[in-house]
Amino acid sequence: MEILYKSTRGGETGVTASQAILKGLAQDGGLFVPDRIPALDVPMETLARMSYQEVAYEVMSRFFTDYTAEELKECIARAYDGKFDTEEIAPLTKAGEIYFLELFHGATIAFKDMALSILPHLLTTAAKKNHVENEIVILTATSGDTGKAAMAGFADVPGTRILVFYPKDGVSPVQEKQMVTQKGENTCVVAIRGNFDDAQTGVKKIFSDKKFAEELAKSGFQFSSANSINIGRLIPQVVYYVYAYAALVRNGEIKNGESVNVTVPTGNFGNILAAFYAKQMGLPIGKLICASNENKVLVDFFRTGIYDRNRPFILTSSPSMDILISSNLERLLYWLAGQSPEKTKACMEGLQKDGRYQIDDAMRERLKDFYGDYADEEETASEIASMYRNTGYVLDTHTAVAASVYEKYRKETGDMTPVILASTASPYKFTRSVLHAIDAEKYDSLGDFEQMDALSEISSTEIPRAIEEIRTAPVRHTAVCDVDQMEQAVKNFLAI
């Protein structure tokens, strides 16, 4: 049965999956959501015997119903291949009482690879299906990881160009080096003088500028998005929760049907929303534990029902979570509101006008699947040190935030349900912060690449290809602009 997509704000309905992926954002500024969540109607015993690629097909084919089986299988085969440094794609590692779902074995050593490896193929297939003749311009804002992962996915893909905006002083040195050394004649990176929310707001403003869209069309271009606002990014993330549960069943760690909790370090809300969608499909997930750093706007929302971005923006050692406007929360709001576009639109208008909104009691009641808490910088460093000391396992800063919050949840509730924790980045991406937490006196004086060698030694892991590649890579992108110059930066890149 065909699944169609509609805007959370009511302006578009009856949109096919391929059309939604092509558009990225709905015309009314809303996000595309499926008209229903399909059931995961494959027996768990069958899923437990499947490869990652086979599970990916079973999940995605339920959502992307206008793609043929051949088209979808081709996209999956091209995405989940030798660019991952483990055969299993998303392995589970148990350390202490936690099952860490390692989502960082792709080309850019962050979880964004899991979806951004397939999005270019879904998008170019969608363009052919819908007879698109324009060149597709991927426009995206990044808090550190999406930018590199998107560029790696789209580099030199025919019929596409990609421009990434990132906050100049708001990403780690490794994240910045990965972006500014990106190859590909169709890629462009621009640093902005501002934070991630400024970059994201600027990109959304460009997307909603109808006059600019007409100007682009005359020059043979049209926009699409690689951010997690694109449904083609979100649905592939559902896959790894299903795969992880099936792996636990296969390995005899849990019984089929036994409930698990899921803990996710959360910024833009896409990753934890994917777990929520997996639960809606029928995966036996109990609590969704949302972990924030000191930018704890989501924690306050879960506790009070008030979303208020009017607060200081704090730069932390987990920069991919330094976000005050969590775009994907709009999709959850739509569900909380009983699929009311009017309620959703009112919340979004309040956020744009006053920087805040409040949900009603009925919507709050539907939030009971979620638990939110945060870890400050000291708690994050302490978690890295204690996990290494007790188990020998090394966490990156984002995963450490989630592990710290999970410990708080367990102490507060006494809930000993098995937990899958989304490990969203390799510790090699945040080496300086990680080694500082483990032994500042010993490691702080080392240079960036000396630190990577040290991390390899203490963790007994090989330095990832993604890191080795940037040791000597030349800088190719040096542009910097103010927020109000972002549209001009797009024009410069496209030479229009």
From TrEMBL:
One of the Pfam families matching this protein, by short name: PALP
GO molecular function annotations of the record: threonine synthase activity
GO cellular component: cytoplasm
UniProtKB keywords: Lyase, Pyridoxal phosphate
GO biological process: threonine biosynthetic process
EC code(s) of this entry: 4.2.3.1
Positions of post-translational N6-(pyridoxal phosphate)lysine modification: K112
Name of the featured protein: Threonine synthase
Co-factor requirement: pyridoxal 5'-phosphate
